[in-house]
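Bench log, entry 3. Co-assembly request; chain sequences pasted below exactly as received.
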Amino acid sequence: MIQSVEQAQVDRVDARAIEAVAVAARAAQPQLAAAPGEQRRAALLAAARELRASRAAILEANERDVADAVDLTSAQRDRLRLDDARIEQMAQGVEAVAAQPDVVGRVVDGWTLPNGLRVRRVRVPLGVVGVIYENRPNVTADAAALALASGNAIVLRGSSQALASNRVIRGAIARGVASVGLPEALVGLVEDTSREGARAFMRLEGIIDVLVPRGGPGLLRAVRDEARVPVIIDGDGNCHVYVDRAADLAKAAAIVENAKLQRPGVCNAAETLLVHAAVADEFLPQLAERLGSCELRGDERTRALVPRALPATAADWETEYLAPILAVRVVDTLEDAIAHIRRYSSGHSEAIVTEDLAAATRFTGEVDAAAVLVNASTRFVDGGQLGFGAEIGISTQKLHWRGPMGTEALTSVKLVIWGDGHVRT
Amino acid sequence: MIQSVEQAQVDRVDARAIEAVAVAARAAQPQLAAAPGEQRRAALLAAARELRASRAAILEANERDVADAVDLTSAQRDRLRLDDARIEQMAQGVEAVAAQPDVVGRVVDGWTLPNGLRVRRVRVPLGVVGVIYENRPNVTADAAALALASGNAIVLRGSSQALASNRVIRGAIARGVASVGLPEALVGLVEDTSREGARAFMRLEGIIDVLVPRGGPGLLRAVRDEARVPVIIDGDGNCHVYVDRAADLAKAAAIVENAKLQRPGVCNAAETLLVHAAVADEFLPQLAERLGSCELRGDERTRALVPRALPATAADWETEYLAPILAVRVVDTLEDAIAHIRRYSSGHSEAIVTEDLAAATRFTGEVDAAAVLVNASTRFVDGGQLGFGAEIGISTQKLHWRGPMGTEALTSVKLVIWGDGHVRT
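Structure output for the full assembly:
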């Protein structure tokens, strides 16, 4: 019964229109895969030019989006809004991706077998990349650029609030693609932004080769329950900073402040601070002062040192605040810190501050996350910061790719085997 | 409604017993991940010794399995049956995996950013590997060896027919693991072999890090519909051999015979032969004679040259026969061959026979499969043949890994970032 109700919902949206966009992208992709790297690069540079040339049209569409948007928080409204500087950043982002070394055709590994067969493992595009995302229109340009650079077609499904902006941005990129003789259908935009449309999208088995869902828990739950296409999860970031007994406390204070407050609303911001008991007395009061208006929620030992800290409950260790709130816990040993992180980490980014090589080595070895950092802010776990040009998301799963996803994350590896009449005996 | 019925079925099997095996494996895995490579290697060598020492017990259990098995084809019965030689092969397979270079901790890539941050991408175990498989008890040993060598715990779920054999084999491997001071729980065996048990197994989200289902279309459909854990699909092999106009026809005949008949019941056997029209007159009659009793199903042009060929229907191009049957089609161009393969390939292994470099280059570039071969039999697409020691399956998906899966396929890559008080500005 449930299935047929669902089916009816899928039918009510125009599932065929969604499928048609993806089918067209799929049909166009072999031409892109066969195109030399310099043609893919030229397409991106032309797309950047078209984005700049479309500045007025993008701003006009974006103004309509912002005016029409209802029920947005001010942070959401800010993410939706474009201005000259953001459009220029978008164009520069596309150029940064074009400047990346070409991943298509890269030989990952190769060997010659005793029987003379020559084996090569070669990077190839995944095929058709699907992205479901929320309000930020710059994702449209970043995702398209990364997909095209790596020989993939892309099907974009942004939010309804950003639809007018996304149409104009997609149009500019498609014109850039067409200007070098490649099919516009390589950059598909799904205009149905309903939940049922999203569900139809994630069931395009055999048409979408990989889906990157970027959104909140509701979207991720729907993907886990409904997706029939392969998925790379861009999940939560419940990131920790652990200040070890051997930490340089000046570095520690700067790193905690940066990880928590430089941009609290993003997934690579820190949510929980763990402090070794041996340095808590000295470190926590000065940190509390430095963090100013940041709300602190501490365990009992923290509250004894920082009177302004509110009591932390069990839920605090699990929460990605995405806000200027920091949970704080005093631990007795490095092992306790690692055990806390093992239990509560969402597998995104985990940092230790220490001058002790053994502690750093143990932490990086035993903490299981997309990224582990020594004496550096979790905020560096970002495609642009790490040198990928941009990112289509940050994977928190272990399969296929972990961490910021640039062009290489959008490839697969094919075995190419050369013989001379070889048969198996 | 459907969900609650399903839930009731899951409850009828002892889902908690299945979960307990996986949870114990997960709890044990960090100890393995922290163990040095030489300890993992010692565990495998001890497991091989224990397998040899358990020869009588394995044979006795296997005799019971074979005697109790009902409704098996002779091929299935053969796959289930063990003898001295097969047990020795099993032990040697474990030793071959132990002899592989260690993948854990291998630095895949690394760079230093302009700000001085040092970035490394390092191979780490996936965590807990689950395998659902059918009658061949040697999979138990191969899969356990590959998982342990790459720092993973494993949970094995074989068929009911092989349960007694699998228990003894698992016991031998677990004793080897324990003999070097590692927990036996690293090698888990699920004794519930019901369909509902399989479904409970594939829903162990957060406990199983990757599931490799090895089985027929029914299992794969269940996995697509029901799995909540990440999956690597070991799918069908509808493999093609294309004999180009520039083929050396002696090599071509040997390769087609080997690809089709050396072992017809396996996924890397060829199912369809495509022959360029320019050489079909000469090649097909001699091939038909050479293939002897192999049934041929041809298009009209084939049948004009090979009277004994039966007429091929559209279904033949889609069928993985797993039997001494070969579909044959004459094509006018290399492009037509590539188009046929694009349409019908299951993405496993595709071969071209040609002396023409341009044709070989185009074929390897444009055919999208886990493996593409030039002048070599598709039968080489196998973990043992390619030098991986063994394989836990052959991936036909594009995400994470394609082709035979050895130890490297059972790893993820973690970013390790070293700084000196770095904060983002």
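Chain B touches chain A through 69 residues (CB under 8 Å). Chain B has two domains: 2-232+405-417, 239-384.
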